[in-house]
Amino acid sequence: MTEQAVDLDERFRTAVAALVARPGRPADQPIAPGGAITGAACLELFEAQATSRHLDLAARRLGSARRGYYSIGSSGHEGNAAVAAALRVTDPALLHYRSGAFFVHRARRVPGLDPIRDVLLGVAAAAADPISGGRHKVFGSAAANVIPQTSTIASHLPRAVGLAFAIDRAARLGVAGPWPADSVVVCSFGDASANHSTAAGAINAAIHTAGQGIAMPILFVCEDNGIGISVPTPPDWIEQAYGSRPGLAYFAADGCAALDALSTANTAARWVRDRRAPAFLRLRTVRLLGHAGSDVETAYRRPAEIAADLARDPVVATARLLIESGVATPACVLDRYADIGRRVATAAELASAEPKLASAAAVIAPIAPARPALVRADALRTEPLPPNEREHAETEDTIAGRGAPQRRNGAAHTEPMTLAQAINETLASLLARDRDLLVFGEDVGRKGGVYGVTKGLQKTFGARRVFDTLLDEQSVLGTALGSALAGFVPIPEIQYLAYLHNAADQIRGEAATLSFFSDGRYRNPMVVRIAGYAYQKGFGGHFHNDNSVAALRDIPGVVLASPARADDAAAMLRTCVSAARVDGRVCLYLEPIALYHTRDLHRPGDDGWLAHPSPVEHAEIGRARVYGDGPDLTLVSFANGVPMSLRAARRLARHGIDARVLDLRWLAPLPVDDLLHHARATGRVLVADETRRGGGVSEAVCAALVDAGFTGHLGRVTSEDSFVPLGPAAATVLLDEDRIEAAALRLLSDATSTRPRRAEARHSPEFDSAGE
């Protein structure tokens, strides 16, 4: 154990031993005259606090012995157990990484749970860890309704706000969820995190939503220890920032004083539960033992500051309260403390000996569950989901959903459609079929989307299922994250791809990691519609023509769909929704803006890009689509590149070159089997990639072919490594069919003048360009 930890343990024992026993008081009586808090409640609080403290000490011991792997502790924050005491076990909790005493108090109230063993298995990275399966030490438990969070700063707040919104929305729509309709969501975080833009945006979203008369039962708990690693927080800053926000009830308590913490937490929790509105509880704490095991806080804190925090030790303070009120004697308290210490030490030895994850397959098992047969069955289903067992009142929204026009619920379409029409009709069909869908985003509701893709959906299905959000992508995605936990399959819209990047951590750090850090016990089913790519006519510039997808393709487990044509758009959307519902997948559905209303392919008026979407069509994840069977060349593309490649293929035919066009459709996972099959069929592959040369999709396509042993000729033609400018200048940096044709002719010329090598693909640098 570190010197700091030994000192903290000895300080407690010495301080308690020096106290004088008082006349006894029954534990079932109020601990203070005229109060409502009993001695028994304070004893329960002390048990949780002392357990959390011993868990911290054990983590330090295991770390020193190199048998433990996580040492960020909760010492000094044990007052957060009072928040757990004020809430029900069924209230969902998203916890700060220093909320150990909250977790212990909550878990002790759930039959069959052992918080000591559970926490230590996480510290030891044991495969038997009941929440993460040995992947990370987190506070989480499905049985205790604690949704696991990692150490990312404030990134869980948007999800918490979304969950508070969705609990009430599920009750009103009759969607079965895991939590009672009168639940309160609690979300804890540190004072440094309160300054993060994610926290500020989430709290603003909660206030904004409640201001619209929408239920928002969330209790924000700021555990304010006055320092973020080494940077002090001004003593009054949290109150100045959040203490007088209209629409946000503010409470403050001393987390080092049990009665104040218990009384105030009870008042705050009751306020939120009764009013279904947001509240902010500032819990003043101290940080003992430094930031983490490797932190030497004497390098940046004065001895007097450290001593002042030690003097406010909340575990000592609760012990003093028990003794001075006569509920317990010093000997009784020390015996309880020592007994907890022995139980923790024994559990630590056992946990550290548990097997660890021993293979990559075991580590990644929960990332991308795939049951394609079940996904297909759900996608092809024509009947609604079975009705919920819980009773619910009739609403205009549910009536409107059941009374939707028959054409929106599985009837055949007679007219060919554009991409935008197909997405609109498919959303309508799915909304009519299944009540667990929500469609939302900026301008999605009354306006029907910037490009009309969601036009008419709100009128048909009601504002409870199709609705506008405030202009904050973090909040849009947070609403999806929370509603996914509450029983919905959310379909949020991000208005433009460029707008996603400032909120990407909600996908990367939250949505994609939840099943990983919960070993699949929690899931984030969602389909995020994103309007993207370039080539808009008369409306451009970078922020409306972004072609950067590299940041999305490297997120483990995320499905990245990119349809080019109406029939694929419908089928792939159905597949994504079913993959989300069945397997809990996070699907990003990239819609090429320039193809939304495109009708023609080769010449004006030919209607060559319209298609007949089937109301029950399915497109399996990771399967491509091929146009033609030309034996001379395989053009590989996606999105806008598909019609460009088809036009280029027609030009190549004039040179006697018979090409086929392979539409990848799925950018993650790539359709490697189909790609390899059609590459080998011609022996010559040109990847036409509208994204950038560096970090673009073509890099992954070429690597997949080489890794699979493709031995033919391989080239790529891309857009430039540039942002997309406004006006005609955009054409200078973007891929077009002229460049595709030129690159194909060079590739074919090279192929006829050399023989392919047996062991590797023929890859000429001149094709690794933008086609110039």
The rough form would be described as elongated
Distance between the termini: 65 Å
In what range is the share of β-strand residues?
5-15%
Poorly predicted residue ranges: 389-412, 755-772
Average per-residue pLDDT, rounded, comes to 91
- The strand line-up of the biggest sheet is 10-9-11-12-14-13-18
How large is the count of helical segments?
27
Q: Major sheet: size, sense and barrel closure?
A: 7 strands, mixed
Structural class: alpha/beta
User: Residue share in helices?
Assistant: 25-40%
Total count of strands: 21
Backbone CA Rg: 30 Å
How does this model look, in words?
- The protein is an alpha/beta fold.
- The chain has 27 helices and 21 strands.
- The protein has a seven-stranded mixed sheet, sandwiched between helices.
- Helix 9 links the parallel strand 7 and strand 8 (279-284).
- The relative contact order is 0.09.
- Mean pLDDT is 91; it is low at 389-412 and 755-772.
Question: Secondary structure elements and their pairing?
Answer:
Blueprint: H1 3-17, H2 39-64, H3 81-86, E1 93-94, H4 100-108, H5 115-123, E2 146-147, H6 157-173, E3 185-190, H7 197-211, E4 218-224, E5 227-228, E6 231-232, H8 237-242, E7 249-254, H9 258-275, E8 279-284, H10 303-311, H11 314-324, H12 330-352, H13 360-364, H14 372-379, H15 396-402, H16 419-433, E9 437-441, H17 457-461, E10 466-468, H18 473-485, E11 489-494, H19 497-500, H20 505-511, H21 514-517, E12 526-532, H22 550-553, E13 559-561, H23 566-583, E14 586-592, E15 625-627, E16 633-637, H24 641-653, E17 659-663, E18 666-668, H25 672-682, E19 684-692, H26 697-707, E20 713-719, H27 737-753, E21 762-769
Parallel strand pairs: 1-2, 1-3, 3-4, 4-8, 7-8, 9-10, 9-11, 11-12, 12-14, 13-14, 16-17, 16-19, 19-20, 20-21
Antiparallel strand pairs: 5-6, 13-18, 15-17
